Each structure stands twice: as C-alpha cells, then as structure tokens.
Amino acid sequence: MATGRELDQLARFAACLGATLDVDTLIQDALEPLSSMAGAEKVLIAIARQDARLLIPQTAGWNGDPSARGIPAPAIASLGTEAVAFSGIDELPASVSSRLTATDGFVAVVPLWAQAHLRGVILLLRRTAPFTPHMLKMLTTAGRQFALAVENSQLLADLQDSYRKLMDTQEDLIRAERLAALGQLSATMAHEIRNPLATIFSAISQIRRHGTESEMSSTLLNIAEEEASRLNHMVGELLKFARPRRPVMHPENINQTVSRALASMSAAGTIPDGIRVTVTSDRDDITVLHDVDQIEQALTLLVDNSIEAIEAGEGEIDICVSSHSPGAVISVADTGCGFPDELAVKIFEPFFSTRPTGTGLGLPTVKRIAEDHRGTLEIACAPGTRTTARLFLQTKQKSING
Q1: Is 278 a residue whose pLDDT tops 90?
Q2: Angle between helices 292-309 and 254-268 (to 10 degrees)
Q3: Residue 399 above 60 pLDDT?
Q4: For the residues of 147-203, what is the DSSP string, one character each?
Q5: How many Cα atoms sit within 13 Å of 79 on the Cβ side?
Q6: Is 353 exposed, middle or buried (0-12, 13-18, 19+ CB in 10 A)?
Q7: Which of 13, 159, 280, 401 sits CB 3.0–4.6 Å from 33 for a disulfide?
Q8: 368 pLDDT exceeds 60?
Q9: The CATH number of the domain covering residues in 165-242
C-alpha cells in the first residue's frame, strides 16, 4: 500500500503534467518529481519524435556513444507495458545499454505507452537499493500518466502545425485570387491606354513632319513624347505582370544567364557610369533548371532596383552566384539607401513603390518568377546598410513546358 509520502509525490508529479502542454517544458518539469519519487540519482527520458522507431533522449547526463541517434523503440517495446527492474545496465538489451554510459547501480525501465503506441521511455538509476515491486507499480502508473501527457502535447503541436499550414494555404489562395483580379484589371487598363498612346505618338510625328516648330513648340513636343514613352513603358510593365508566360525550363549554366543579362543591360546603357557592378561565383558551372529569359528579366529588375536605390548615381552593386542545396542562389547587394522595417511587408505588393515614377511591379514580378521556378525571393535590408536580394532556384525539378 502506498504511503502518504508516496501519494504526495505521485500527486506532485501528476500536477506538473497538467501545468503545461509544451512537450519540452513537460519533460523538464517531470525530472525532479520523478527522481524524488523513485529515489533515483539519474533520470533519462527519451521520446519518439518524427521517427517512431527511435526514442530520442531529451535529457542529458546519461548518454553513451555521442554518435548514437537514439534508443531503438523495438527493444523497449519488447520489455512489455509495465516498469521493469534490472540489477545493472549490462542486463538491458544490448541495443539499449550501448547507448548509455556504463554506471554501477540498479536500473528501472518505464515504457511510455499511450493508445497502444510507444511514446517513449524513462530510465532511472539508483545505487543504494534495488527497485521494489511496489515502486515499479508506482512508476508504471506515473509512466502511463506521463505518456498521455506527452501524447496530448504532441497532438497539440500537430494541431498547431496543421493550423499554420491551413492559414498559409488560405493566404496563398487569397493572394492568388487578388493577383488574378489585378492581372485582369491591369490587362484591360493597358489595352485601353495603349490605343490613345498610339494616337498621341502619331500626332506628335505628324506635327513635326508638317508643322513649323518654334523653340517653345519643340520643347513641348519633346516633353509630350518623353511622357508618352514613359507611359508606354508602364503599359508594357502592366502587360508583363498581367499576362505572365509559363516558364519553359531547361538545364542551363546559371552563370551564363547572369552574364547575358548584364551584357544586355550594358548594351542598352541602363547602368550609369558611376555605378560599379561586380560578379562573382563559387563555381564555373552551376547547372539549374530555369527559363533563361525569365531569370534574365528577374535579374534585370533586381539590378534596376539597386540602381534606383543608389543615391547620386555613385555606388556598388555586387552580384554573387553560389551553389545552394538543393540548387543555386543569385544575390544582388547594393550600397543604396535601403528602406525602413515598416515597409518590408509592403515591398512585394503590386503597385507599391517608394519612387514617384515607379510602377511598383518590379519585385512582385521577380517574386512571381521565383515561385514559378519553385524557388523563393528574400530581401534583407536595414536603413543605412546594404540591401541584399536573394533569388533561390532549385536544381532538381521536373521540366515545365508550356
């Protein structure tokens, strides 16, 4: 029959199990009541995490081979469902004793069973006296309570993880619907704007061809043509965003794609003389499945962003291509002015721009290209420091042709 002291210890142990649903906190809180109840000098708790065949030690101080990945669950399951006593570590199954530091003393093994599943094991060591049948019954009871608490903690963790995934999926669906609506609106607006633009360009051309230009009229015509060209460029950006082309991927050297993009920008004269662009790579040949034209477009947009961010037209843009499991990453870092933290959540929103003449479609377009390549786009920035954009691409993926 349990004594008053033993009942108090068992009640204290049960109380600590109900105090939290975090499995790691639960384990730490249970150590002292367990060792006090059993009069144990050492307590090792191992829990089944992702791999149910291995019980991963959660407490330090009694592990043997550091390279051991865990305690094999079948060896513990073979001991039954109740606490078992051994007169020494050497009497334990070899696959268990090999994971423990050789220590003299009596050992109790408490399998943690819940709903017919082995959730873990508690190992207790004491040198003064063997574990009595009465103590083993108490440990069996405590183990079952502990196993249920661990199962509840893991179920809560799984539920929270499922909820997070559900929320992420919902956000992705909302974003996709929003982008589709914006794309349809953008395509309609671009079509409606392009027709009047063609008329404006034609009118300017006819005036210059048949009219007598004064200095004032020439200046005004130049302004009109320049603004119409800028508007036409914006319409082109709108159409690219509204009607994305499905990528056609082939295994290509990403270094060559980067070189082609920069050569095109240099030929077009879009890189100011005061901005120095450097390109480095950790390997000569980094083959990645990608759509060359789309990645060139993405890199051009990132470099354009960096150019706009560099004040007074003087600074540096460092482009680094590196292998990155499971693919490659293109980093574009500039010495520009950066942006404050509160804008970090807005930079990927279509039509958001900090520049008066910006369309706000550059980064959203790059992000869409990255996602179409099953990759990601990350922007790291702090005011007054370098801004770095990282475009991650995967090496191994099925070719997408469309």
Answers
A1: yes
A2: 50
A3: no
A4: HHHHHHHHHHHHHHHHHHHHHHHHHHHHHHHHHHHHHHHHHHHHHHHHHHHHHHHHH
A5: 27
A6: middle
A7: 13
A8: yes
A9: 1.10.287
